[in-house]
Amino acid sequence: GTAPAGAATWPSASGSQPVSSTINLTSSKDYGMLRLYGSGALGTGDQAEDQQPILTLANGVTLKNVIIGAPGADGIHCLGSCTLQNVWWEDVGEDAATFKGGSSATYNVVGGGAKKASDKVFQHNGGGTVNISNFAVQEFKTLYRSCGDCSTQYTRKVNLNTIEVTGTGSTARIVGINVNRNDVATLRKITILNDASRK
Ligand code: ADA
Ligand code: CA
Ligand code: CA
Ligand code: CA
User: Is the complex ipTM more than 0.90?
Assistant: First the structure.
């Protein structure tokens, strides 16, 4: 059907590149809307927990203008503070991005979107604060999860601002946090679009 007025426009790729072993970024990178997708041993993008990321970002790295295609494997891992700017997941794998820095890390997701997440989109396993803004999400179960069972646990924060949610289904949730660990989630400007066409 026709997208509602104001709905996110999903980008088209400038090209496609298979990734058969994790790309480890140690400095910022602009992919110019290239599509990267998993191949070989990286993982099939199902819910198996032993999959490898397509990209890892060292502390302080900004990744921008990239499409993560299918299979999405274990997506993107931020090892410390990071910025994911205009990153689009066409078919989220086990999860889309994992935040693994320490308690002073800040992870910014600015623009972009994610579709087809059988379970989680953003997985926060380290410490610090996740800021997600101007992001579109569609066909997912949980947009953000503060790890419930990680071997090192933290008090985590998440800030959502200007999020477009489409086709959530009856069991989807925006955030899952650990109130017993004093996690804090702040949600602003969450727009639910087209929810009548639940999938
Ligand atoms: C599951 C698991 C966590 C963590 C997470 C992940 O939620 O319980 O410990 O491994 O997956 O990072 O994918
Ligand atoms: Ca997982
Ligand atoms: Ca998927
Ligand atoms: Ca994972």
Answer: yes
